[in-house]
TrEMBL record:
<dbReference type="GO" id="GO:0005634">
    <property type="term" value="C:nucleus"/>
</dbReference>
<protein>
    <submittedName>
        <fullName>SWT1 protein</fullName>
    </submittedName>
</protein>
<dbReference type="InterPro" id="IPR052626">
    <property type="entry name" value="SWT1_Regulator"/>
</dbReference>
Amino acid sequence: QILYLKPPWTLANLLKCYKKHWMAVFGYVVPRSLLSTIECLSKHLCADKPFDSSTVRILLQESKKLLHAFSTRSDYNGVLPHAYAEVTKLCETLREVRAALVEQDLSEDIMVLSENAACEKMEATTPNLQSTEEKELHPSFHAAHENRHQEIWSVLEGVWNTMNLYSIELFQKLDPSAVTIAAKASFEEAFLGLQKLLAAVKDIREGIGR
């Protein structure tokens, strides 16, 4: 009789009911600080716009917090444990997708490096037979060659900068007083970055071996 919105409910309706009756009802069942979780879910899930994988990860984590809080009161005839298991499964799927995307980006970077190295090797072994026309094209050819060097250097510099950033991040996690840094990546991003770097080093070693 006193409900803000009557059933049947949509997700948006439920979140509105949570916020409306939070202090009078739900705040006595679960910690009142979880109102921020309700507001986070409402802000993103009720908005008519897409969001990235980082936001999805946050929403899944907030959902798990809410479900876990209510589980201390009741299992709601087994519905709540099932819901918690499904959200956990989604979290694992998201981790796998993000790891696959990182691996794909790594493969593309390595492919570029391999192609550039192959081009340079071919150029080094090509007989130096230049006609008059070839001599006229030589300056542009030389410029392209220099551009390839710069591109390779840029990729290697990017690997080094990434390694340095994540190393600082790991030290920051282990000992906050040891390192100060203005902009910090998440621990998950640092871990994925190190995995990417390890895979790159492995492929480079295999390439040298071949």
